[in-house]
Specification:
By secondary structure, this protein is mostly helical. Helices cover 78% and strands 0% of the residues. Helix 5 packs antiparallel against helix 12.
Length: 185
């Protein structure tokens, strides 16, 4: 199976997950992919495995993009930090998972814990980048702010109740970190 097929399957799973949460069926997936359930089960042991590997796909993609940002010598520190927060295509996929977080937690708590474990570490590359550039106190405060903000976003209540997209939230979070709350545009 080629990587392009892998990505297509994962993006299709994410699209179905966004619409139905973990209640989508392998029949739904087979129909979307124009393939058979048998073919799907040659790639995944079961539906839990399918969701599990999709979660891995999302966060591995984020880590790859973050690593590319981190090692890009042509970007200044400010540009690197800005790019971390604008890693929207992959953060959008996290938003799709979070949209049905409560349902995922009910469907399989271990999958929900996995998402949370990934989210606890999603900022590690950014912290590595900044640890020699900001004071220890600032780093601890930044780590706490970002991790606690992500925990709040997991509930989706602040976003959903205020009709704010996950992508806008991440971009504005980056702007606040970089430029503060009061700034000249």
């Amino acid at each position: 199976m080629s990587k392009s097929i892998d990505k297509n399957i994962y993006y299709t799973i994410l699209r179905l997950f966004s619409k139905k949460g973990p209640t989508f069926t392998t029949d739904d997936l087979a129909r979307e992919l124009s393939t058979s359930k048998r073919t799907i089960y040659t790639l995944f042991k079961n539906k839990k495995d399918l969701i599990n590997k999709t979660i891995d796909f999302i966060f591995i993609d984020i880590k790859k993009r973050d690593h590319h940002i981190l090692t890009n010598e042509s970007l200044s520190l400010e540009e690197k930090v800005e790019h971390f927060f604008k890693n929207i295509p992959t953060m959008y996929n996290v938003g799709l998972l979070l949209k049905h977080g409560d349902n995922l937690k009910k469907y399989d708590p271990s999958l929900w814990r996995k998402v949370n474990d990934y989210l606890d570490n999603v900022w590690d590359d950014l912290f590595s980048l900044l640890e020699k550039r900001i004071s220890h106190v600032q780093l601890i405060l930044l780590q706490t702010m970002l991790k606690e903000t992500m925990k709040q976003l997991l509930t989706q209540d602040p976003i959903t109740n205020n009709k704010i997209t996950f992508e806008d939230t991440m971009e504005e979070l980056g702007n606040i970190i970089l430029y503060g709350v009061i700034r000249d545009k």
